[in-house]
Amino acid sequence: MKPNKSKLKNFVVASVLIIALFVSCKKEKSEEVAVQPKSDITVLFDGTNLDHWEVRDVGDAKFRIKDSTMYSDKFEKGDFIFTKKEYVNFHLKFEYQLPDDGNSGVIIRAGSERPYDWETGFEIQLVSPWTPPLDDFHCTGALYGYAAVQNRPTETPNQWHSMEIRCDRKVVTTIVDGNLTMTVDTDTIPKMEHMQLKGFVGFQPNHAEKEGKYVQFRNVSIKDLDLNPDYVAKGFYEEDERLRVLAHERAVALGTDVVDQLVVLLAEQNTMVKNGAKQVLFDIVVKATNPNTSVSEKNRVKDALNESLNTSVVPDYCKTYLEELIRIME
Amino acid sequence: MGTRRNFIKTTSLGVAGLPLLAHGFNLIKPSDKIRLAIIGVGGISGMHIKGFVEHDDVDIVAICDVNQLKIKEKLSLLQELRPHTKVDAYTDFRQVLDRKDIDAVSIATPDHWHALIAIMAFESGKDVYGEKPLSHNVKEGQVMLKSLQRNKRVFQMNNFIHSSDNFHRVAEIIQSGVLGKIKTVRLWKSEQSESLGYPTLQTPPETLDWNMWLGPAPNEPYSEPRASWTWRLFYDYGSGVFGDFWCHITDVVYMALGPKGLKEIETRGKRRTNGIAETPYWFEADFKFDDLNLFWTTEPPKEISGAENMGIGAYFEGEQGTLLCDYFSKTIQIGNETFKELPGVPITLKRSPGAEGHSLEELQDWNLTLVPHQRNFFNCMKSRELPKSNLAYSRELTLPMHLALISFRLKRNLQWNPETEQFINDPAANAMLSRTYREPWNLSQFE
After folding, report:
1. Do B427 and A241 touch (CB under 8 A)?
2. Which residue in B has a C-alpha nearest to residue A329's C-alpha?
3. pLDDT tens-digit map of A3-41
4. Which of A37, A229, B124, B253 has minimal CB crowding within 10 Å?
5. How many helices (H) and strands (E) does chain B have?
6. Are residues B242 and B279 in contact, defined by beta-carbon separation less than 8 angstroms?
7. Residue ranges per structural domain of chain A
8. Within this chain, do residues B86 and B142 fall inside the same structural domain, yes or no?
């Protein structure tokens, strides 16, 4: 009823949050430069191929490439397109364009079986303006049906918009056209408890039934936050057991790169963190000593443990543990 | 100080390879009293003590523990059971081993202390009654056997169900061949261990010598679940529910069949992810021997009728029939017929003495079940014969348990060479057959 005042309020909130987000991103970026030589950003779609993707439930229609965009013109059986890789924590960026009666979405942390979005993962909505207008739980940028946008974005059809989706463990943030749209801690939504924290990222085709009306995507890239050892190490402090299990899994995948961070955790007074680090260091050794692992990889892990032993400032009992791990690797 | 010096002198003699005590040095006549000390007087030792006091020729002269509260508790138990016996209390087991008037020690410490105390007892000329499992790791068992043989000592492991009539009878039935060749044995223990949560690190209580509790195990800040009975769920000290019960139920397989030529170990398991407990709460292991497949599970196998409610059990699958048993019962199935006993199978195995005068029901009282097994040990101390669960036997029995946990921890199947006692093509697995002892404790000096 008071559009001006409400808009102003939204603007102020959004500005504060955007600055906060910008600052935090920037800080993280500088850390990554220091510790993360590998690229943690994957271009999922550059306009030329769908190599990173897998089309599921193929009906008559399916996602394909036209004018350097990926699009699907029918809903049919579903025709979802999903990443081949599963993600836990990530920052996804892409551009999209919807027709007049467009209705699509981004599926997050989905399982490999239908229904992808309701049983396992969730959906970030992409939609054109409806009559009557959809509420804030179902408009573009909302965590569909569960969390409303705090700052409603422009939904103009037939033009390109940009969207970013950041999944930082339990905190989901959406940014549309550079403006913070929604940020929510999913722990505050009891109905989301059953949803998995790891899964595939997917695009929905357009729901519209009219021929020739379709959703288009371009410039799709994803930053996998779990390729950053500092980020992964923080996961061992998470109260949710599932997040710690995932941090464990990601740390084993990182191997050598996360050894220094884990050794610091070994000295923690918090037995949850300490025990988590102890177990994951052991499992890194398990992987490295597997007869199928190359000798060079095994040596890399051994060198990392030795280096950490010599350089880390940790109590002697932590060093004893490292020495025992190194002994197993000899 | 004098005690400590004696200890160093004793061990250095051992290094020089001089036999400390020739066989017969402290020979006990059948009429003599055996002077026994108990090292480690936590929960399980109450049961040991109630069994030991049943033997009129055994005096309990000393007890030892790193926890003064346990000492107090067991002194009052002994006061109650044997009001006229004088018992000395120690917090350092080396002082017990220094006493020349003590003939034998019973070791009921956590697993990580079993081997070293037993070896040092052998080196001081004492016989040993030791808790199961034999040792914390494979290497320790090997050194124990060398030290025992070098010092001509008597050792019995406290897998006391070994001395039960039931296990002897199962072995007789299996060995008679009435069930045909046994190709497979299935074993289980249905107990899922806790996670223990995430306790805060604490200063050890004044009444506990935490450094001595840890002994050869790596240093670690104290927290209550490590030092209480749940120590078993940490690899530094124990081997979980699996290792706890392995020696009890697998014993009947070793008695009946003595499996040889272990070749392959395959394991599956799950560990808790919401607490500091390390050992698996759910575990399965498949062992391939020359002539036998042995399977361990955390639940009774569904295909065995009658096993559903058995918390622990063994199921022998023979070509002509099957036998399902636990500690005190057995059911034999041949064709469509079910038997509780096969009177036609002759009694061929000598039972442990000491069960006489007690009914089968009475012997199901845990405290009394120990008596025949302890009696067998005390008799062998006097006769210098091999007890039923002697070191060579109990080492063979314990060994596959260690190998299975190594396979589980390394997340891979392992190939074993029983002659060299080494894994094939897996140096990391071989490294886990032993561990580094924390100073000043040292195992290799006793090899």
Report:
1. no
2. B428
3. 344 444 444 444 444 444 444 444 343 444 444 446 789
4. A37
5. 14, 16
6. yes
7. 38-225, 229-329
8. yes
